[in-house]
Backbone:
């Protein structure tokens, strides 16, 4: 079975020839240790992942090595961001400070040239070879960046109609933008907005239902309308809102964040018949500070908990960030290939 | 009862009402300590309980903290140093190389809600920055936050610098990738997984006299 077959099989909750592998992104410092001098695409061609992914921020040209640290710029939404040396520039200042600001705010154009960045090149190189994933925003991140997270969350009580307006305005951009990405060749869309942290969802199930769920549902149905699979990514412990997330019809769920106490065996038991589980090797401590042997054991454990009957793709718990030991990333891949063959021997 | 009304108004997210009630109590010469502890701080302790019980999330905590702050603004000029009402001074920031601040700001709010004076230095603060602020404000506790695994070494470095240069400083660490084990490993005085926990720990370590002479 080839890489694409493996991934689509798993997304349809079937059993491929072995458990597939995907990663959101791999930091250039890890790449340069493993494959010095390689471009990102060269690396993706060589490494044994079954999917290739670019997204909202990672598709932009100007990787950290080209950009000065502490370089500030305004992104397409007008949000001020600064590079810290990590892969994604951090938002430091919002744009919509009042209802007047919203009235005069002009959202970006989903059809702006070059808005997909390096993605068309990715599609050209890997179409028919690896499964092609585009990571997009969904319902929560844009309003948070535009308004400031604290202000937006205060608005939920103090000015709910204002919150709704910002959410809907940003959503209408993402609906059009994600259609464009799929038409440009995305076979799978991963919706990347975080809803939770270690303690649980950032907002109550009631607020989730009122402010976020409708937009998530819309994004999932648009992705399906355009003929792509849909994965929902969120960090944190989402157990309290997971029923609702699953019911939107997503095909995959990522990463089942182990640091926040998400139990992959429990998620598999409860939802494994409805959704492909994608995760969950810890990239915070294990892949950064652990030994290769510990990584191998973690992969074996993850497979024995999650891979029976298929419907599982192995990934890290977020991404292969700059702190991950390159040998641990390679150990993760090797262990998946060794122990993830069906029928499972674990 | 008016003091109870203050608490209720905090939990009702009614900042204007909290401020008005506090002002009324001050007019009536109600004991400052009662207004602060039984009116305002007690409400924030209830916020912490509701968070732990899973009833309060970030929007509720932010609203309550804002309402409590409205009352504190009225009360603050009346809390002279030395009245014994200040629970302690805390310097808090996100460590060098890290810009994440939502959780850290929530911890700062809850610590203020517990009656501490909190100096929030913002983000991307190096060891020297923490030390200077601790010295300048005579801080009892220095709180450090990190969200990136890659900035946790900066936390260790800051604890080391503080132990060397200002050994009586209590330190507390937190943030998504930070664990109790890591806190112990780097020699921090305390660790908290969340904002209400930070209040409990801050209270606990204020009662400990620290002298990090190693």
Residues:
């Amino acid at each position: 079975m080839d890489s694409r077959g493996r991934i689509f099989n798993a997304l349809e909750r079937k059993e491929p020839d072995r458990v597939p592998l995907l990663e959101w992104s791999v930091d250039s410092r890890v790449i340069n240790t493993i494959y010095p001098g390689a471009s990102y695409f060269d690396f993706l061609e060589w490494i044994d992942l079954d999917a290739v992914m670019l997204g909202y921020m990672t598709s932009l040209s100007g990787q950290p090595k080209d950009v000065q640290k502490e370089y500030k710029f305004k992104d397409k939404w007008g949000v001020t961001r600064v590079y810290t040396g990590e892969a994604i520039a951090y938002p430091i200042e919002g744009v919509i400070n009042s209802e007047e600001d919203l009235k005069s705010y002009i959202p970006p154009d989903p059809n702006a040239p070059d808005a997909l960045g390096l993605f068309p090149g990715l599609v050209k190189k890997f179409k028919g070879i690896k499964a092609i994933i585009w990571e997009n925003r969904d319902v929560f991140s844009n309003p948070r960046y535009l308004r400031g997270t604290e202000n937006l969350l205060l608005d939920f009580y103090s000015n709910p109609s204002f919150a709704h307006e910002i959410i809907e305005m940003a959503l209408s951009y993402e609906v059009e933008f994600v259609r464009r990405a799929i038409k440009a060749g995305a076979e799978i869309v991963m919706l990347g907005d975080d809803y939770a942290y270690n303690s649980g969802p950032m907002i109550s199930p009631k607020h989730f239902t009122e402010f976020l769920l409708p937009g998530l549902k819309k994004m999932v149905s648009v992705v399906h309308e355009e003929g792509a699979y849909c994965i929902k990514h969120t960090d944190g412990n989402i157990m309290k809102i997971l029923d609702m997330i699953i019911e939107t019809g997503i095909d995959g769920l990522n990463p089942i964040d182990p640091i926040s106490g998400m139990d992959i065996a429990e998620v598999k038991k409860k939802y494994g018949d409805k959704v492909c589980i994608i995760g969950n090797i810890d990239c915070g401590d294990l892949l950064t500070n652990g030994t290769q042997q510990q990584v191998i054991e973690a992969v074996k454990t993850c497979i024995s908990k999650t891979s029976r009957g298929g419907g599982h793709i192995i990934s890290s718990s977020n991404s292969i960030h700059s702190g991950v030991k390159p040998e641990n990333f390679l150990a993760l891949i090797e262990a998946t290939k060794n122990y993830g063959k069906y029928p499972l021997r674990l | 009862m008016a003091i109870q009304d203050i608490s209720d108004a905090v939990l009702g997210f009614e900042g204007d009402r909290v401020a008005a009630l506090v002002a009324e109590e001050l007019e009536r010469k109600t004991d400052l300590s009662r207004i602060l502890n039984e009116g305002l701080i007690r409400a924030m302790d209830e916020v912490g309980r509701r968070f732990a019980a899973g009833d309060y999330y970030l929007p509720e905590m932010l609203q309550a903290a804002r309402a409590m702050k409205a009352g504190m603004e009225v009360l603050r000029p009346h809390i002279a140093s030395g009245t014994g009402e200040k629970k302690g001074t805390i310097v808090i920031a996100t460590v060098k190389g890290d810009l994440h601040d939502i959780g850290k700001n929530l911890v700062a709010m809850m610590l203020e809600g517990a009656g501490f004076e909190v100096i929030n230095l913002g983000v991307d603060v190096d060891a020297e920055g923490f030390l200077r602020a601790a010295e300048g404000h005579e801080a009892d506790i220095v709180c450090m936050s990190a969200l990136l695994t890659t900035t946790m070494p900066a936390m260790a470095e800051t604890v080391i610098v503080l132990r060397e240069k200002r050994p009586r400083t209590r330190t507390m660490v937190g943030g998504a990738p930070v664990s109790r084990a890591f806190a112990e490993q780097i020699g921090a005085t305390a660790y908290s997984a969340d904002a209400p926990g930070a209040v409990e720990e801050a209270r606990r370590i204020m009662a400990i006299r620290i002298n990090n002479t190693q």
